[in-house]
Design a protein that fits this description.
By secondary structure, this protein is an alpha/beta fold. It has four domains: 10-266, 5'-nuclease (Rossmann fold); 315-523, Ribonuclease H-like superfamily/Ribonuclease H (Nucleotidyltransferase, domain 5), CATH 3.30.420.10; 548-658, Taq DNA Polymerase, Chain T, domain 4; 712-851, DNA polymerase, domain 1 (Orthogonal Bundle). The chain has 38 helices and 23 strands. Strand 9 and strand 10 form a beta hairpin. It binds a DNA duplex through helix 25, helix 27, strand 16, helix 32 and helix 33. In addition to polymerase activity, this DNA polymerase exhibits 3'-5' and 5'-3' exonuclease activity. It comes from Sulfitobacter pontiacus. This is DNA polymerase I. Residues 689-892 form the DNA-directed DNA polymerase family A palm domain.
Length: 932
DNA sequence: GACATCACG
DNA sequence: GACGTACGTGATGTCC
């Protein structure tokens, strides 16, 4: 399309400074290999331009486009107000030389590049947008700068390229509470701390919008300021009227910037392949050159591989050699290591201990590494071999620094805020040090780096990572410790072996860190790692060390009661079966039920054994008493073995409390997992099981407080899939399952029966899991066709759900991962598999953003919690996915609930603005049963 | 160590 | 049209 710009034309205006700023902060400080020129921002800028150009296909593609830049630091606004943008930070040194290169880049892409001395880019954009509107064409401003929102409307809209979200008049209203024509008035009142626009003191956007909407516009408001009821607000407006008018002039964009070009000069042009590829080659952008060349159908330019600096060894260059590891046996050698650590500013640390339970294990030795291949082990309490070679004596081996002495030297370094301590699963090591009163900080964790980048692809244990990323199989621990009863602890491992094994772990950790850390940016998960993973480590360490008090007598009494009941049931079962057998053996039970007794419905699984799961037995229970008895027996057996018995063994003899361990990198979705023991699956659904929670108690003088998010996953679904009815119901506090039932079946809310509600509830949950007719039918025990009918009606009523499911599957197929609202990536490698695996992967992909976002939310709450409750006599003890359990001194319960609820309900802010509020329910009691 | 089962969100 | 089918976990007991 050509001719004079007008109807049918579509102008894109890109806010160049915003692109540069974003590119600069999104990428690590890259430099051009050949000469060290800082190039990160240019690289990011080019990537964004390329992506932009590639994304511009289809009927909505622009006919005209320009990138608009700021020029010069002095504009007419500085003449109006000398403090305008006065508290802007200076441009970073390494960004300055890149600015002109972004102009060159724009021209290399053959996109119009415009700027004007004395004017901000915003003014040029305003002028062009107004011209485009006047000519009857459309204009899209690619920026998220709120100052540009005053231009929206009448064919002008904005596009946030990062979020790929367009902002129209309603979007502006959402942001400012007024439509675009009054945005300037609101900004004039609210001011802007970034640009140093003064505004009216004490008035923010909300109040400003309120006032403008009440009085019509700013002039009317200032004229009638005397009518304002609130005395403080009235006085502010009267006193600062001039300042407010000045602010309006500052934020009002100049729509009449004199320009020496017209819209027609901005017509979209094809890039000149040679020019573009030439520029990219000059910048030495290998990957982008290749990508662009592919699109243009050209050969990628060859870019000479610059020699890697000799003094920067990378992991791949240094072979693993355990013989080179150093045994640090005296303080002089240790001091030399500490000195080296201070030279580098970081160190990989690993502790060796007497066991895997970090609440009990004792420190045996410490290994350190600052450069690949150069690591040491500092043994502390290794035992000397006894005369009979059987470690009969308690004597320490030679060549060890006394623990106290070594820690005296190491502690300042471990606690030094300027020295980064790198570990693999640092929560373990920091807990070991915490036992000794040493507070290790700051930390980096290779396990969590991997988790942030590779969740869903593979595990994140050191052996896995070493083999995958370093092509090196670590020395196995088993031959050193042995197995079973004859296994020894690490302090009995001979020093020569211990040095090799232990130092290698630090070596591997350092190499992984060197490899992973720069990749974080590239994978785009720096924020995830920095805000959701790393800060959680000390929080969890503290919770685990606190533990929760569990009353042994309560458990013991329950255990005896269960045993008695089970014995009674066993007698009945043998009677009904006609013989004795092992009730706990599904295999034997299946044979009894289906072969000997000849009951119908025996189905064999893959392994050829009959299925005897609860669902099968429940069906059989209508026909026969035996399956019902077995179900009862199984419930008791589960409660006894897993809870009343095993839990007692987990009571720490020193603290009298149970200390679980949370794995941060276990669940692919971002959820935590609790192990040894698992305190996230303590019974609650059955009345009998629920009583186990009576054993979880507060110390005398204290109470337990439980706070849990109400329906968090459904709220997140309502937001992500954008379902207006569900969002409204949550805002209004309406029973969401009843609402769903009402919408689907046309039953008014006040006539809802519990059965219809129950069905709707199953559907709501099913949706979160990637529903299927079969699955819903089985869950509700209704015919499959009927279940499918429900699902069809649900999708019809809430079409956004189907769109979400389809979009998510498509996204996973295209990218190989899905994302939470906070940017956590969950990889879905099997999404394109054949057969049933694809189905699994698709449902997991649908579920992951929902479950994962909820997990992110509570992580954020937990990370903020210590600060929020620091002045209260309270401790955070447990997390159960959507619940936090606290122990608090009596009298402070309400204060704690208020503080913790505040943090939990606002945990998504300010990164994610949820369309639904988050509600938190709270309970207090002497036991977990009472508090829930 | 695999499998079945069942506890939780 | 057949196939297999609700998401994410951990602990326990049986059986080979």
């Amino acid at each position: 399309m050509s001719g004079t710009f007008g109807k049918g034309h579509h102008l894109h205006l890109i806010d160049g400074s915003a692109f540069i700023f974003r590119a600069y902060h999104a990428l690590p400080p890259l430099t051009r290999k050949s000469d060290g020129l800082p190039i990160g921002a240019v690289a990011g800028f080019c990537n964004m331009l390329h992506r932009y150009v590639e994304g511009n296909t289809g009927p909505d593609a622009p006919t005209h486009v320009a990138v608009i830049f700021d020029k010069g630091s002095h504009t007419f606004r500085n003449d109006m107000y000398d403090k305008y943008k006065a508290n802007r930070e200076a441009m970073p040194e390494d960004l300055r030389p890149q600015i002109p290169l972004t102009r060159t880049a724009t021209e290399a892409f053959n996109i119009a590049c415009k700027e004007k001395e004395g004017f901000e880019a915003d003014d040029i954009i305003a002028t062009l947008a107004v011209q485009a509107r006047a000519a009857g064409g459309r204009c899209t401003i690619i920026s998220s700068d709120k100052d540009l929102m005053q231009l929206v409307g009448g064919g002008v809209e904005m596009l946030d390229a990062m979020k790929n979200k367009s902002i129209d008049r309603d979007g502006v209203f959402e942001k400012f509470g007024v439509y675009p024509d009054r945005v300037v008035d609101v900004q004039a009142l609210a001011g802007d701390s970034v640009d140093n626009v003064p505004g009216a003191p004490g008035i923010g956007i909300k109040t400003a919008a309120l006032l403008i909407n009440e009085y019509g516009d700013l002039d009317a408001l200032l004229e009638r300021a005397g009518e304002i009821k609130q005395p403080k607000r009235r006085q502010t407006l009267i006193d600062h009227a001039d300042q407010i008018r000045l602010s309006r002039d500052l934020v009002k964009l100049d729509e009449n910037t004199p320009l020496d070009f017209t819209l027609d000069d901005l017509e979209v042009r094809d890039p000149d392949a040679d020019q573009l590829l030439g520029f990219l080659a000059e910048m030495e952008f290998r990957t982008l050159s290749k990508r662009v060349a592919e699109v243009l159908g050209k050969e990628a330019p060859t870019i000479a591989e610059a020699p890697v600096a000799a003094d920067a060894p990378v992991a791949a260059d240094v072979p693993f050699d355990a013989e080179l590891y150093e045994h640090v046996s005296d303080t002089a050698a240790l001091q030399a290591w500490i000195d080296r650590i201070y030279e580098f500013g970081y160190v990989a640390v690993d502790t060796e201990t007497t066991g895997l339970d970090d609440m009990v294990a004792q420190l045996v030795g410490i290994s350190l590494c600052v450069e690949p291949g150069k690591a040491c082990y500092i043994p502390l309490i290794h035992k000397a071999r006894g005369s009979d070679d059987l470690f009969g004596s308690d004597d320490l081996a030679e060549g060890q620094i006394p623990t106290e002495e070594a820690l005296r030297l190491l502690t300042p370094m471990l606690e030094d805020p300027s020295i980064l301590k790198i570990g693999q699963n640092m929560k373990y090591d920091s807990k070991i040090f915490a036992q000794l009163g040493i507070n290790v900080a700051p930390i980096d964790d290779t396990m969590l780096l991997s988790y942030a980048m590779h969740a869903g692809l593979h595990g994140h244990g050191m052996d896995t990572l070493s083999e995958r990323y370093l092509s090196h199989t670590p020395i196995p621990i088993k031959p050193l410790l042995g197995t079973g009863k004859s296994a020894i602890t690490f302090d009995k491992v001979p020093l020569a072996d211990a040095v090799k094994y232990a130092a290698e772990d630090a070596d591997i950790t350092l190499r992984l860190w060197q490899l992973f850390k720069p990749q974080l940016h590239r994978v785009g998960v720096t924020k995830v790692y920095e805000t959701l993973e790393r800060p959680l480590v000390p929080v969890l360490a503290a919770m685990e060390r606190s533990g929760v008090k569990v009353d042994r007598d309560t458990l013991s009494r329950m255990s005896n009661a269960f045993a008695q009941k089970m014995a009674g049931l066993e007698d009945e079962i043998y009677e009904l079966a006609g013989r004795k057998f092992n009730v706990g053996s599904p295999k034997q039970l299946g044979e009894i039920l289906f072969d000997e007794m000849g009951l119908e419905g025996g189905k064999k699984g893959k392994t050829g054994a009959y299925a005897t799961g609860a669902d099968v037995l429940e069906d059989l229970a209508t026909e026969h008493d035996l399956p019902a008895r077995v179900l009862d027996w199984r419930q008791l057996s589960k409660l006894k073995s897993t809870y009343t018995d095993a839990l007692q063994d987990h009571i720490n003899p020193d603290t009298g409390r149970v200390h679980t361990s949370y794995s941060i990198a276990g669940a692919s979705t971002g959820r935590l997992a609790s192990t040894d023991p698992n305190l996230q699956n303590i019974p609650i659904r059955s009345e009998e099981g629920r009583r186990i929670r009576e054993a979880f108690v507060a110390e005398p003088g204290k109470a337990l407080v439980a706070l849990d998010y109400s329906q968090i996953e459904l709220r997140i679904l309502a937001h992500i899939a954008n379902i207006p009815e569900l969002k409204q119901a949550f805002q209004d506090g309406i029973d969401i399952h009843a609402l769903t039932a009402s919408e689907m079946f046309g039953v008014p809310l006040d006539e809802m029966t519990s059965d219809v509600r129950r069905q709707a509830k199953a559907i709501n949950f099913g949706v979160i899991y990637g529903i299927s007719g079969f699955g819903l039918a089985r869950n509700l025990r209704i015919p499959r066709a009927e279940a499918q009918g429900f699902i069809d009606r649900y999708f019809e009523r809430f079409p956004g759900i189907r769109t979400y499911m389809n979009d998510t599957k498509a996204f996973a197929k295209e990218h190989g991962f899905v994302q939470t609202l906070f940017g956590r990536k969950i990889h879905t490698p099997e999404i394109s598999a054949k057969g049933p695996r694809a189905g699994f992967a698709q449902r997991a992909a649908i579920n992951a953003p929902i479950q994962g976002t909820a997990a992110d939310v509570i992580r954020r709450a937990m990370i903020r919690m210590p600060h929020a409750i620091k002045d209260l006599p309270a401790t955070m003890l447990l997390q159960v996915h959507d619940e936090l359990l606290f122990e608090v001194e009596k009298g402070a319960e309400d204060d704690l609930i208020a503080a913790a609820r505040q943090v939990m309900e606002n945990a998504a802010d300010p990164v994610v603005k949820l369309d639904v509020k988050l509600d938190v329910d709270a309970g207090v009691g002497a036991s977990w049963a009472e508090a829930h």
